[in-house]
# Entry
Amino acid sequence: MKLMLVIITMLFLMGNSCEEAHNNSVTIYTGTGDFHTGHMQLLLEEQFPDYDITVSELDTDSQAAKLRTEGIKTEADIILCLETSYLESLHNILADLSSFDVSEFFPEPVPASRRFLPWGISAGTIAINRSLLESAGLPTPYTYQDLLNPIFNNFISMPNPQTSAAGYMFLISLINAWGEDEAFAYFDRLAGNNVQFTGSDSDTVNALIKGEAGIGLCMTLTAVNAINNHEIPLELMFYSEGAPFITTGIGIIRGKENRPVVREVFTFILRNRDTIREVNTIPFADMDGIYDAVLKEQVLARWTH
# Structure
């Protein structure tokens, strides 16, 4: 009888231990770049040394597809830095965040549904490795049309719009500037210049870092991080059509918003968010329709690269 009591007690303690470990765990899906993922992980470990926090980076399309498939049964508790259009499409699996204080946010970017909150604004740039251009005896491309010059064959990298929000924002910005047919004709010609279409913005910038490409259509912040952390001599250019941009948001999976550890971590992230503030002199592109899910599906159905 005593042996049975000891076994029951041990099982009870083990159960409590497992439950406690689960209660202290938080999984975050993020679409941010490598630098931000690592920085966020360190920041959270510093603030919450007793919590088991996992920050998993996924490209935007993969993250959205995974969440659509898994629904509220996903392992993720918090979704971070996901493009607004994807968050809108995931509305039914996101928690109502009305109970969180949003007074520090501007009222206009906060959706009325409160299913997600604003995280940042990310603009794109044409990043040029000046030393590679000079060593190859190539001129500086000052326009999108310049990139079609055959001398830049196999010299340009760009994230694929099918898998990357960064790639899609370049596509939609030129559709708004030139019209859909002309924009697609342009990218067909650009593809003929053996452009490296990568899976993500980080892949494009990594190609610049490794010298596999000398010109990259990418996010401004990712390029700046490459300059600061890898001492790559990149020059950032903004063409006359304007810099494309997207807004991103942060949310909690429905059913997990009442877990104290999730609320604590979520609130901490909000207070320490790395909001991107672009220089005022950057000309911004017309991004009308960037968050239209139906339009996005129609546009990407035409993409063949």
In short: The radius of gyration is 22 Å.
